[in-house]
Design goal:
- With 134 residues, the chain is of the alpha/beta class.
- It has helices spanning 20-33, 87-93, and strands at 2-3, 16-18, 36-40, 51-54, 64-71, 80-86, 96-104, 118-126.
- The chain has a single domain (2-126), classed as Hypothetical Protein Aq_1857, Chain: A.
- The protein is built from 2 helices and 8 strands.
- The strands form 2 sheets. It has a 4-stranded mixed β-sheet. Strands 4-3-6-5 form a 4-stranded mixed β-sheet.
- A hairpin with an 8-residue loop joins strand 5 (64-71) and strand 6.
- The model has no long low-confidence stretch (mean pLDDT 90).
- It holds the Pfam family DUF779.
Length: 134
């Protein structure tokens, strides 16, 4: 498991992690597509799970928050992957620590893992020290 860097001003603890299986899949997707990014909208259907895109394919705005940056490199040159979430969704999940996992199944049609027969999913637990997002 790897944890993302802390990027929210004023915070000292990471909010995002990725399982070893997720990191393996991300390395494969990086090899096939180049740099990557995640976005989770919180909407229904496709928005209920994190979506993985080639970096920059999803245009973020002031309505999105960067929650952390995962570095999936096994060593050597960094392979950073930004994890973005819609501001509205983060208002609900601001007390949670999120772990990106991967399971068998049909993923989103737009997310890069879909042809692999796998999908990303979020596992969460409450953070004891997180302050509500404002």
């Amino acid at each position: 498991m790897i944890e993302a860097s802390v990027v929210i001003p004023g915070e000292t603890l990471p909010r995002i992690a990725a399982t070893a299986e997720t990191v393996d899949l991300l390395r494969k997707l990086w090899g096939n597509n180049g740099p990557l990014m995640f976005h989770q909208s919180g909407g229904c259907c496709d928005g209920s799970s994190p979506m993985c895109y080639p970096d920059g394919d999803f245009i973020t705005s002031d309505n999105d928050i960067l929650l952390g940056v995962l570095d999936i490199s096994p060593g050597g040159e960094a392979q950073p992957i930004d994890f973005w979430m819609s501001r509205e969704q983060f208002e609900y999940w601001s007390h949670t620590y999120l772990t990106i996992d991967v399971v068998k199944g049909r993923g989103s049609g737009f997310s890069l893992e879909a042809p692999e027969g796998l999908r990303f999913m979020i596992r969460s637990r409450l953070m004891e020290t997180a302050q509500p997002f404002s």
